[in-house]
Write a structure and sequence with these properties.
Low-confidence stretches: none
Order of helices and strands: HHHHH
Distance between the termini: 92 Å
Number of strands: 0
Radius of gyration: 34 Å
Number of domains: 2
Shape: elongated
Helix content: 25-40%
Strand content: under 5%
Length: about 140
C-alpha cells in the first residue's frame, strides 16, 4: 500500500489530529495540575473527613413572615398554621364576596375559622389600618 505522500491524490486513512503532540502534552499537563489543585483544595477543606457540608450540624432557622389579610392570595394563607388549601380559598372568596376584613376578628366570618385557628394565625397577621382607610378598597 502506498502512502498519501507518495500518491498526492489519495487521502490517508487516519484523520489529522486536532492538536499536535506538543499541544496535547501541554493540555495534559494543565489538566494534571488542575486535578492536583482540586484534590489539594478538597483535602485542606476537610473532604476526607466529610466536613465539606455541615447540614447535620446547622442550626434550624425560623422564618418570620406576616400576612396582609386584605391582599394575600390563597397560597399565602395556606402557609398559616391550621389553615389548609380549602380554608385559604374560603378566606379569599369571603374577601371578594363580602369586602375587606376590617380587623382580624373579621376572619371569623369564614366558615372553618374559630377562636383557636385565629389565635394560632394571629402572630402571622399584619396589623390592619383604620376602618376609614379601607372604605375605598
Amino acid at each position: 500500500m502506498t502512502s498519501a505522500k507518495e500518491n498526492p491524490g489519495q487521502t490517508s486513512r487516519w484523520p489529522r489530529p486536532l492538536l499536535r503532540r506538543f499541544e496535547q502534552a501541554v493540555v495534559a499537563t494543565i489538566l494534571a495540575f488542575s486535578l492536583i489543585a482540586i484534590a489539594v483544595s478538597l483535602i485542606t477543606r476537610g473532604a476526607h473527613r466529610g466536613d465539606l457540608i455541615e447540614i447535620d450540624r446547622a442550626e434550624p432557622q425560623n422564618v418570620k413572615f406576616q400576612l396582609d389579610i386584605n391582599h394575600a392570595t390563597w397560597p399565602e394563607f395556606a402557609l398559616l398554621p391550621d389553615v389548609g388549601e380549602t380554608l385559604a380559598r374560603r378566606i379569599v372568596e369571603s374577601r371578594k364576596k363580602d369586602g375587606p376584613f376590617l380587623d382580624h376578628e373579621d376572619l371569623r366570618r369564614v366558615r372553618g375559622i374559630g377562636p383557636k385557628t385565629l389565635d394560632a394565625a394571629r402572630p402571622y397577621l399584619m396589623p390592619l389600618p383604620d376602618a376609614e382607610t379601607l372604605v375605598g378598597y
